[in-house]
Every structure is written in structure tokens, then in C-alpha cells.
Amino acid sequence: MANGEITSIVIRTVSRIIIPFIQIFGLYTIIHGEASPGGGFQGGVILGTSIILLTIVFGLEEAKRRIPRGLILVFMSLGLLIYSGIGLLDMLFGGKYLEYTRLPLPLSGHEISALSILCVEIGIGITVMSVIILLFFYSVRDEDAHGINA
Amino acid sequence: MLMELMLRYNYWISVVLMLIGFYTMISKKNFIKKIIGMNIFQTAIFLLYISMADIEGRSAPIIISETGYVNPLPHVLILTAIVVSVSTTAVALSLIMKIYKEYGSIEEDKILEVHS
Amino acid sequence: MIQNLPIFIVIIPLVTVFLIPLVGLWKRDYCFYISALSITLLFSISVFLLNLSINVIHYHIGGWEPPWGIEYVVDPLSAFMILLITFITLLVILYSKKSVSKELPNSIVEFYTVFMLLITGLLGIVITGDIFNMYVFLEIASLSAYALIAVGGKRDALLASFNYLIIGSIAACFILLGIGFLYMVTGSLNMADLSVILPKAYASYPRVVLTAIIFFIVGLSIKIALFPLHTWLPNAYTHAPSVVSAELAALMTKVGAYVMIRILSIFGISLLGDVPIADILSWVAAVAIIIGSINAIAQTDIKRMLAYSSVSQIGYIVLGIGLANQTGLTGGILHILNHAFMKGCLFLAVGAIIYKTGIRNINEFQGLGRKMPYTMLAFSIAALSMIGIPPLCGFFSKWYLALGSVESGKWIFALVILLSSLLNAGYFLRVLEKAWFGKSIHEEVDEAPGSMLIPTLILAIGCILLGIFVTIPVSFINSILSISKLGWT
Question: What are the structural domain ranges in chain C?
Fold first, then answer.
């Protein structure tokens, strides 16, 4: 139990089965944000929770092996860059920031709006997931490492 | 007059929760209890907003209904405010962890003893 | 492209926040260059906006008309604040290269990330025209401030930051409650719309609107550290890193004063005619001025002395807001500009002294004037300006405030300003005398490095120029008062 993992075989097996389902539920919550309770932030938290469960049950080393830290930082920036990217794209086509109806796609106004909102929500979900994972990794890390680039 | 006051029971509940949270935040000595009090205070404010938005007999604006829809704007405001509350709690908990590593305790009076 | 400028003011620092960790993964030193680049870009946009803001720019996000959508409004007051924020931040960022690498060697990437987030929050507060958006940006700025004070992990800084967090969250919750009550009776969140609807709402629901304004005033007073609610400020400014103290002292409280001006102009003259909010504010501000100065005299740590002096200077600004006539408000807004320059210069100079010598106690300042002449010159100019000696800039804002208080018939405030100038002279001249006329006890100290000295000197020269050419800011403030609808005067 060097890195705090749980050794009980019941918990390890059940969590191995449940974690993919939690992730699917998180993705469902992000995508169905327009038609049911949910949205970008909520789905991102659920996705992050699945990785926290992985860390609690299998230990920090295993989680870090599966999810390298550089990737998490890239995801954190990626979500926001999607959000700004869609906004700036709308400005390129002559509209205001986030004026979705100016995009030159062959769909009607409501459908373009819904599609763009979906992309923005996915971006927000990615950012929130990576922030929650990073927060948890920082909380349980060993104290000898210094700073974000150790 | 009493009937009108009793009809607005949602605001009374919210105010009582706010006062409980506020009292916890300022009078307890343990830092974690202060953060719990902050969360209770903020949740009570959210309850005030959401109960303000509800209109009797109407349904959520995601199901087609003939009687009309509830006002969805306060719900959106509260989603944003919940994110703000979660971020504040995250910053506060990280500060508490660092304080615990530095001082060895999270009771306010013990820390002030060590500090001076 | 010109009409899209308001959104760039918020998007450029926001994108920088998320680029800095990526760049930091690759090479740590490039974080400084990216932040400096984005602040320079923002400064040039803000100079451009200052000219454009005479015709008020309305920018509807997403193409939605207000009051259904969020709009960004650039009127002369907002453009003035944006220029102030970007100018001071540019100087502070240039100063921060050496200072941060000495004080926080392990946390450079985190520092720049959270710093740019603070800038995003401050710029968002002053440019938005929607009251809930202002709350969100206020919280972004406050959270970044809590984190910035605690970066580096010194023991005192952690406790000070936690105290600030608890008190600041109470303030934010009060502001949220105020917004909720206003929405309950008016149904709109747009500031221009609210100022139109509120007189009718006040006639139908007087108690709700009164509750809303009380929550706003108390919450904002906590945020700007007005006298009885100022207890978080001395610890927070004293134990923070030098760059953070300078930035927070110069900007955070001023932006809070801007929010107070906007909120009072939403409520307008109909409400403020009935309830003596402006009178109460001016009396509390007068007490704050005196008590802040008296507390500053009793301090021996120089940053703590400057922090208590900030409490007193906030009193001047709120006195200007509370006097409720044109001259008083001119004095208040002029003092926002002057105090940002003076306090920024003082904290930067003190940071340079701490960087070179590590001295924080005033009694050990002896003879520093000979060893670090330019730094102490900047400190002296800013200190003389704070005391209120013409032709430096501090004199003119005090003059306008005194003139405004005489105009509204309240002579006692002019006496309070005079008394506090004497008290300011008390604690600043003590430091100056030790530094310039004391026998030197430091042997191997030489001048601060150039990248830290030049921003400090630029701010000090700014104090002189703002005093000599005071008619330029004053004429701009007159155009602010005539174009923006600050309707409680």
C-alpha cells in the first residue's frame, strides 16, 4: 500500500466495471445538455469524477501512468481554445462574438446555433474535466516535487 | 397578513439557512467548518433565486406543455454561481491543505498561538 | 474590426491565461514574454478605445439585443479605467521579471497564469454592461487575488489569504443577493435598462429595492475595504509578494470603487433622494480617512504602513462619491487615477528595496538615500504627492474634494482632509528623513536593477506630470461626467 491504493478485490473489480459507465454517463450529460438537465460543466465534473475514482482505488502511480500530466495541461488549454475559436470564427464571418448564425453551413439558423452550442459545451466539458483531475492530483501528490514543471 | 407571510415559506427557509451558514462562517474556529458554512450560505442564496423563478402550475421548458413554462433565466444564473462557488471552495481547500502542512493544525486558536 | 474591439479586451488576456501553461511546459522563461506581449497589445487597444469612447460603443455579444443578451458598453468612464488598468499592469509586468524570479523561483508559470486571470477579471468588470456578468468577473478577479497572495507559500501569506477569502466570499454573496432582489422586482439584468425601470419598481416595492441597495453597499464596502470592514487589507498587502502588493493596491480597490459608482448610478436620484445613502457614505469615509492615517503612524513595517495608508486613501475616493456633486465626484475619480500612480510607485519602490536589501522595518532605513538614490527619489516623489504638496498630483485631487465639500456646505470634510494631510506628512516624512539624512548603516548595497527601476521611475514621473498638466485629466473627467449617466449628482 505504498501509494495509498485500495487492495480489496471487491472494490477493485466493481470499479473496473463502473468507471467506463461513469464516463459514458458524463459524455451523455454533456451532449444532452440542451434537452435534459446537464451541460458542459456538469458533464465535465462527472468525467473528472471517474478519474478520481480510478486514483482512489488504484493509487496515484497507476493513474499517472494512464494519464500523463502534459496531456492534461494540453486538454485544459484545448477546451478554452475551442470556445474562443468558435467565437473568433463567428467574428471572421462578419458577426459579433459568438453570433452563431453567421457561420456558412448549409443548415437553418436554429440548427447552426444548436451545433455550435454543442461544440462550445464539449470544449467546456474538456476543460472542467482536466481541471478537476489536476486539482485532485495536486492534492494527493508527494511533497518533494516543486511546481508545475518538476 | 399572516396568510401571506405563510405563503412565502420558501423565502423563510432560505433566510434561515443563510443565517445558519453565516453564523457558522464567522463563529467556528475550525477552518473546514468555516468552509462548510460558506457552502451552506451560498446554497441558501441559490435556493432563494430558484424558488423565486418557479411559477405554480407550469413545467420546465424542456417538455412541451400547454400551461406555459417556468422562467429559465434564474436557473442559468445559478449554474454560473454554482461554478463560482465550487471554484471558491477549491481555492479554500487548497489553502487549508497548505496551512495544515505549515502549522500542523487547522484550529484557528492553535494557529494564532503558534503564529505569535 | 473596430467595432469588435470591446470583446478583444477580454478575449486577449483570457487566451493568454490558457496559453501560458502550454508554453511553460516547453520553456519556463517564455511565460514572461507572452504576458508582456499581451499586455502591450491591450494597452495599445485601450489607447485607441479612449478616443472612440466619446460616442458610447455598445457591443451585443452573440448578436442578441439587450435586455435579452449581454452587452459590453464602452463609455468614457470605462475607457478611462481600462487605460489605467492596462498602463499600470504593463509597468508591473516589466517590473516582475526580476522580482518574481527572486521571490517565487519555483512558481513562475503559476504566477503568470493567475496574474493574467486577475487582469481578465479586472478588465471584464469595467467593460461589461450586464450586472450579473459584473458579479462573475468580480469573482474571477477576487479568486485570482486570493491565489496570488498565497503563491510562494509563506506562512503569514497563507493565513492572510484565507482570511481574505472568507471575508471576500461574504461580500460576493451579499452582492449576489442584491442582484437577486433587483431581478425579482424588475426582471432585467442590463444596467442601462435597470436605471430606467427602477423608479417604477421603487414606487411599487420600496422595501425590496432598499434591501437590494443595502446589500450592495455593504458587499462593496467589504471589497473596497471601507473603514469598519477593512480588517483583511493590512495582512493581505503586507504578506503578499511585492509585485502582487503593488498590483492589488493600485487596482483592485479602485475597480471596486468603479463598481460602486456604477451601482449608485443605477439606483439614481429617485431612491437616493429618500434614503441618505450618500450622506452615510461620506461620513463613514471621513472616519476612514482619519483612522487609516492614525493607524499608519503606529506601524514599523513599511508595507503595513502603506497598507493602512491605502485604507485612508480609499476614504478619499468614497468621500468623493458620497459628496454627490460634480466637483466632489471629479475629485473622487481624479483620486482614483492619482492614487493608482502614487501607491503603485510606493509599493514598487519598497519592493525594489526589499529585493536588494531584505529590509522591511522602517528603523533600518537609515542612509538608504545615498545607496539607492533613484529608488528613494521615486519613493520621495510619490510620498510628497500623497501628502499633497503642489504641483504634484495628490494636491489636486484633495483640492477638488475640499472644494466639493465646501460647495455642498459640509465644511467639516475639508477640515478632515487637511488633518489627514498633516497625519500623512507625519508618517511619510519620518521615512524620508531616515532615508536621506540618516547615517548609512548598509555598506554593500547598490542600486536596484534597471528592469525594476524604470517602471518605478515612470510612475514617479507620471505623478509629476499628472500634477503639472492636471487640466488634461480634469477635462477628460468633465467629459465623463457629462456623457456617462452618473445620475445621482
Answer: 288-489
